[in-house]
Structures are given as C-alpha cells and as structure tokens.
Amino acid sequence: ALITQPVNIRLANARRGAASFFYGLHHHVPVGPKLTDFRLPFPSWLKFRLTIFSFHLS
Fold this sequence. Notes:
With 58 residues, this protein is mainly alpha-helical. The chain has one domain. It has helices at residues 4-27, 44-57.
C-alpha cells in the first residue's frame, strides 16, 4: 500500500488534469486551479480513453 499510494495519487491528478484540459479546449475557457477538481460526467469509454491518455502524461 505504501508503494502504490503515490502512483494512485499521481494517476488521479493526471486524470483530473486531462479532464480539465479537455474541458478547457471544448469550452474555450482558460484551464486553471478552478477546474482542477472539476468532475465531469464522462461516459465510461471516454473515461477509459482519459485513463490511457493519463499514462502518456506521467
């Protein structure tokens, strides 16, 4: 648990960052700290795509 915890936190942060990034691109608003914890009701396939994308980010 001590080893996997930081990785899970990094992946969660990467997923939130990717969600904020794509939300900013789609709605043409600046992506900043306000959208960091923003939860979007993604379809499961899009959430899966974001998970794959977050692995490329980290």
